UniProtKB/TrEMBL annotation:
Organism of this sequence: Azospirillum melinis
Family matches, as Gene3D superfamilies: SGNH hydrolase
Signal peptide stretch: 1-19
Protein name: SGNH hydrolase-type esterase domain-containing protein
Residue spans of biased composition, Low complexity class: 58-74
Domain of life assignment: Bacteria
Amino acid sequence: MYRLLACIALILATVTAMDRVLASALGDLLLRSSDRFMTVYRPFEAEAQPAIGPGTNPGAQPGAKPGIKPPAGQEEQPNALLVKAALTTQPRPANGPATGPAAKPASGPADVLVLGNSRADNHFPVSALQDMTCGRALNLGMGGAPTVLSALLWDDYVERHGAPRLLVLEPTGLVDNPHDLADLPLLAYYSPRIDAFVRQENQELWMANHAFNLMTFNNNQTMRLIAGLVKPAADRTLVGAIPDPMKAQLAAAPEEMMTADAANWQALDHIIASAQAQGTRVAVVITPYFPTYAGKLKNFDAFFADLKGRLPAGVTVIDARRAVDKDELFMDALHVNEDGVRAMFAAMEPDLRPLGSCPVDAMASLSGTGNTTH
């Protein structure tokens, strides 16, 4: 009997040791992935970042798409790339208040950070955002992520790298279930903060992952991280147009209400307060909805009016809900496609560009030609 128990104990010890060794090796390997979330947990090497200057795409992942082009019919207007070509390589001097975009250099991998759910993920390609703001961008939008998860990612980023100059926050994660974990569990391997949240929300999952560490990597996100080891990650804009059957389904759908849980509101307040306390400019950017679907939301305008009323002073609100209205520019009810992103950025440019760190002298020189940039 003792010999049997000893054999069982030896087997368990061997399995546990192998699990820990293999999980550690896999975790270290995935940390080298070009996936954007690994940027948060990987040590930042400042010397590896390219300088901001004409013809560069600062902070972009290798293999990312080039700067976004203007929508059809605007080819003769100077776009973000033409503006960038006119810029000097010198950063804007910090002549303004401490909360200005150039008041302090970003100490981490991003000057501009994007947070939100899939609408943030798919609507803010870093190539376009960098061209418009003249700074390195990192998109931490996560599909299905409620605002409480965005707050965890924000805290992890700031803790490791310091605050960015500009935070772009797509706020519709407010309506997502605050108990959904989305793709967060894998990141618990790298973050004690996220690990504690997983334990709070799903005790069984947390226990399984701690009993066998390899279980933490048993998800689709691991495959995306592995793909990021083989091929550098690019922008995540969507390709394709909303199909007719989906349009008919949306037209026949009943009306519904937009609601947000108190936990998401509290998380939004925390993110904004934390950012402003550290001198980060905050832009709350509401991206487009498919018009038919927006028409089914009974409190569509009232919900966002309430959101705007809750925001503290100093937050820039860019309401682009109706900036795109053509069916062919949408992928589904909640997401515009690649052409829709171009149209959205063209519409937002007058409000978004001033929040960046483009040199004032270059912008003044360009505007003096009599042309516009949108």
